[in-house]
Prior knowledge:
The complex is a heterodimer.
Chain A: H1 9-17, H2 23-35, E1 43-46, H3 48-63, E2 74-78, H4 105-112, E3 116-121, H5 158-165, E4 171-176, H6 182-188, E5 191-194, E6 214-219, H7 222-232, E7 262-266, H8 276-291, E8 295-299, H9 307-322, H10 343-354, H11 357-370, H12 375-398, E9 403-407, H13 424-428, H14 435-439, E10 444-451, E11 457-463, H15 469-483
Parallel strand pairs in A: 2-3, 2-4, 7-8, 7-9
Antiparallel strand pairs in A: 1-3, 4-6, 5-6, 5-10, 9-11, 10-11
Chain B: H1 5-14, H2 24-38, H3 73-77, E1 83-84, E2 87-88
Antiparallel strand pairs in B: 1-2
Helix pairs in contact in B: 1-2
Amino acid sequence: MSDLNKLTIADARDNLRAGKISSAELTEACLSAIEGAGALNAFVLDTPELAREMAKAADQRIKAGDGAAMTGIPLGIKDLFCTRGVTTQAASGILDGFVPEYESTVTRNLWNAGAVMLGKLNMDEFAMGSSNETSVYGNAVNPWKVDDRKLTPGGSSGGSAAAVAADLCLAATGTDTGGSIRQPAAFTGTVGLKPTYGRVSRWGTIAFASSLDQAGPMTKTVRDAAIMLGAMASVDPMDSTSADIPVPDFEAALTGDIRGKKIGIPREYRMEGMPAEIDALWQKGADMLRDAGAEIVDISLPHTKYALPAYYVIAPAEASSNLARYDGVRYGRRAKLGQGDGIVEMYEKTRAEGFGPEVKRRLMIGTYVLSAGFYDAYYNRARKVRALIKRDFDQAYASGVDAILTPATPSAAFGLGDMSGKDPVEMYLLDVFTVTVNLAGLPGISVPVGLDAQGLPLGLQLIGRPFDEGDLLNHAYVLERAAGFAARPAQWW
Amino acid sequence: MSITEDEARKVAHLARIAVEDSHLPALAAELNNILHFMEQLNEVDVDGIEPMTGVTPMRLKRRADVVTDGGYPQKILANAPDAREGFFAVPKVVE
């Protein structure tokens, strides 16, 4: 079998179980694909020796008849997950050389299931960005292109999306605070799932905004997302917001039958100035679900317009608190100090040179909205608006809607550098269809549905009921089958 | 509301991020733009709405107040830029 790196998780699993391939072969195929893909800058740290060791153990486990669904599957890991003994920097200079002494719950679950680590993946610094351009390693590059321009793979999980789209790994972990899994998936023609808040443990995943962060799978197919979520999710005593809800068999939920289901189309997501082809894709997606026997209904989520400003108060506020720990004392980098510099100068110099401009900007905004005199005007008001945004969704689901269909992004992937020099707020607007889902703690998935006029992938987003990822994945599975998205980027790297 | 250069300096100090004086006007302008964007929130009627504290309707878990972990100072100190004699070392804070 050739091009083993191009397999899906499901196909690799079946072939591994049938003894037709070994994890060692599968892992070698990925390692050589990674070696040839330096131009994508998706992997920022390769761990080939560890990968070969883990593949060998996986092969033994499969031979012994003890293989799980993810056993022997080679994965890329976003640089935000702490991996024991393997440098983890959140793509930031301030964590220069940080080697965790512990393993995040997500990656521990994956290794316990027998998955293989290929290395660490590029991302926006501390997951703050929508184009992967805030990374201390330089940006990852989208394997998709239509002319000489290099395109962004999206952000913040840009390295994960690029690696999956370019078949450097079978799947990757991502994290999503405002759209950081779903937007890069849409930009690269891959599938990205943000689970319900609390489904996946946050322990050992470097925090950005704790009430919004959630890790999830980035895969080639919806079935793979179901398989991988099953291995990532767990009830974890180490995360006090981890929900005490058993993890079901998500793959078993993929029946392909959505007859009688009700799909909501939120009218507030029809944004002014939205490109006609995004609107057409959305309509096409609704038609596909209707043809599969679902009922399409118009719904209203009246506070949608206020999701972005609320998000850009709440997320920086939480970040300013979470990132206070990077002070040059316990880990990472400490600035060189001058004669007579005290501890405050040490903090201020370390943070000034360790953080990049976007992170500093958000930390200062967060500090401002939490400061005395402004806390009520900004932070508390934003939290009240958040409650209203969640109530909008609660009411939609209470009225009998099973899933909500929206565009994933307001455009296809844009050129690297296109947004530089623009007002930061313009970059924030890219999250318009995805942030609501984080604010409401809901599960959301981006599925590739078509190509735009230039030939770049476009995705649609499905939003599900809390803790019903199985049903959400089943809707996504139907959409995926109907769309039949089979385009792949031509290999130029 | 609008941020002056002085306020920008104060915010930077509160966030413990050194900003050179020459960069303060640009910083103040940038922060003002973002705050202006946030001011849309003032259009929303939030009367009688409780600020959200947790997105899932669950009570934070509790456990017995006992030591469950620890006893490995060398691991805790392994990544410190400066550790001596089992402690994190910082510039002198007490004269």
